[in-house]
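Memo to structure team: turn this sequence into structure tokens by end of day. - J.P.
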Amino acid sequence: MQTVDKPKNTFAPSLIRSALWLGLTFIVFFCLVKLSFWQYNRGFEKEQRADRITQLNQQSPLTLKEVVKLSKENQFIGKESINDFPVTVSGQFKSDYVFLLDNQVEKNSLGYRVLQVVQTQSHAVLINLGWVQGSINRNELPEITPLNGQHIFKGHVRIIEQGIMLTEQDFTQPNWPLRVQQIELDKFSALISPLIDKPLLPFVIYVDQAETLGYKKNWHPMVMPADKHFGYAFQWAALAIAWLILMICLRVKTNRSTHLASKNSPDVLQNIQTTTIIKEK
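Reply from structure team:
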């Protein structure tokens, strides 16, 4: 008497594979969609900021005292509390304190941004004077002639956003001009305290591009315009859709291959032959 082999239970492994496929598909799709929305929101923020800068530039520049008063009223809430405001500064440059902000690129050339302290009757503020060419030899700093004496000039307020630093900056033995990797106003205030009894204001003044004061003024309020953010948002969304289509097609193809393989498996053929023999008898 011939016996018919029971088919193997493939339901559990198939369910696990389906769950893994669904989980991977959803996680990657969700991340791509989230990146798309993030870029879109950044582009929307940049559009608003560009409109705001245009409106601010149509206004008369404020004095430094007016900017400080406005900032105290707003308590520096949000990135755009006083950011991008045009300002007129009248103060005395301190030639003892010159900071060189490292790793600043201009047309594939590596250089520095020169920052110097200006003292007014009631405040001290850090001034970004522009970009200078650096040397291939990292031990050589550019020759800077510090500004000195009383100056009146126009600029724009920039609130500095702190980036990620792998190692903390050590200013225990400063050599002037001081090369820095990032603007840290609290630490800079401690450095200048021997000669200036006022802490630095919590923002930097970028000298206006129309001013002859300083060096090459190659800065832009926004490094990446809104159009680029919208373009990246579209790319991430397209990748999300492409990923979803790819995974669905791959799943359908895998299911077809599994179905054909199960039909041609030895166990199935044996069952078919056994069934045929039983029917003939």
